[in-house]
Every structure is written in C-alpha cells, then in structure tokens.
Structure prediction request, 54 residues.
Amino acid sequence: MGALLALSSAVVYGIVDFAGGLLSRRAHHTAVTFLGQLGGLLLACAAALLLPAG
Prediction:
C-alpha cells in the first residue's frame, strides 16, 4: 500500500507542478497558489478519512 501511495503522490506532484506553471501565466500567482493549497488540503482530508490507519 505504501508503494502505491508514494507512486500516486509523485504523479500528482508532477501534474500539479506542470499545471501550476501554465496557470501562473494566465492567472494571478496568488490565486493559483491559494487554489493549489486548498485543493491539496481537501485531498489530504479525503485521504485521511478514506484510508485506514496503520
């Protein structure tokens, strides 16, 4: 399970890094940063609720 979580984390990090650079060209950098942090928080909360503790 740990390897799957690490792989998914690396994939999501790469996608967000690429998309953040593209979005920063079109929108204000503060809005991109805020929405990225908010999305990460929501994803982390959902993962904490759905995945069992070890």
The helical segments are 2-26, 29-50. The radius of gyration is 13 Å.
